Amino acid sequence: MSPRVSDEEKEGEEIDEAEDIISDLLNRAMKLTFNGSDKRSALRVKRARVKKKEEGKARNRVGGFAIPFAYAQQQLGRAGEHLQIALALFPLGAEANELMGLVFLQANDGRSAIKSFDVVASQDLPVSFYAEMRGHKQDQAVKVELHRDRLRLIFLSSYDKKGNVVPPSKPAGEDGLGDMVVEASSDRKQEFDSLDLTLTDIKRVETDKGVLKLKLAKQEITLSPIYLPSFTPIEGPPARRFANNYTRLFVRYPGLEDSKLGTEGMSGGEKFKMGYNIANASVDIAMSGFTAISAISSVQDVIEITRTIHSAMDSLKVSFATWERSVDDQQQLLAGKSFKAIPILPANLAFVQEMK
């Protein structure tokens, strides 16, 4: 058996392992109990989690259902390890880059995700992510596929008001996830229950806090990306940075240049609110004097203001120990130094008097 065939088999094994891990996480996150294992019937039915102070604002803003953060981080880390090996063998492999792009989105690393998705798009394959779609009397889990000339929303399930899941009218591919990995040689003749949109059907895509809004001719659709390893941001700069990672995909791949990104710093209203809170806290301290009750109140004000400042300065990031080295570093480490041309004949240093 040649080494080339061995490398291809190894790449396939690593991709299969990563695909199994990621598909299981997505099935759990979207409560797709009818896909595969019967053990998913015991899934947690709570919606994806947000920070406690934002629970009142979380309705219709978060996508999917809760998975324990530690478990999601562990599984994503395992998937990342498998994909790093596959990409070290074949850096331009479409399947490995499709999955790695999804993993980078879960790490809230939009820049690295785009590097992986660029490889996918260069082979005329769709760039995709998973989200919960909400609109007029609709609430559905979808796979969002971004093609060069169109947009496709493949329906994976629908939810009633109590969160009960209903399968789509047509199977969403062999894996029930709309074909999470699309092979370059696949013709995809199977019909899906989907919403297909041309670029002219879409007026604009914009970031609205932590979600994406698609403005169509006759309706407006909201997409809440599925996010597994930490609290889903829904307010302030972290939420806008999070949603911008997905809005940029609409700009880069279908070419929807009218898409509107959210302000990644503090908005004018947020700056005014923070300034008002600082001034209000200063007045409270000056007017109430130093008593036990006033000291507690002042400390609470300072803590709240400090949290606001840190929220504005830092993006929401997930640091996985297994991702301390980037895929590029791993590839350079395994590949070693690049080969240099070595002459096999001595150089002729004689002066050339006539050029022919």
Quick tags:
globular; alpha+beta; 356 residues; 8-stranded antiparallel β-sheet
Question: What do these coordinates show?
Answer:
It is a single chain. Helix content is 40%, strand content 15%. It contains eight helices and eight strands. α1 (3-29) packs antiparallel against α2 (69-89), α1 (3-29) runs parallel beside α3 (94-106) and α6 (268-288) packs antiparallel against α7 (292-313). Mean pLDDT is 79; it is low at 40-44 and 315-325. With 356 residues, it is α+β, with helices and mostly antiparallel strands. Strands 1, 2, 3, 4, 5, 6, 7 and 8 form an eight-stranded antiparallel β-sheet that branches. It has helices at 3-29, 69-89, 94-106, 110-122, 236-252, 268-288, 292-313, 327-335; strands at 127-135, 138-146, 150-159, 165-166, 194-198, 202-208, 211-216, 220-225. β6 (202-208) and β7 (211-216) form a beta hairpin.
Cα shape:
globular
Give the biggest sheet.
8 strands, antiparallel
Query: Which percent range fits the helix content?
Result: 40-55%
Please give the count of helices.
8
> Beta-strand percentage?
15-25%
Distance between the termini: 49 Å
Over the alpha carbons, how many angstroms does the gyration radius reach? 25 Å
Average pLDDT figure: 79
The strand count comes to 8
Note the run of SSEs as H and E.
HHHHEEEEEEEEHHHH
- Class computed from helices, strands and strand pairing: alpha+beta
Low-confidence stretches are 40-44, 315-325
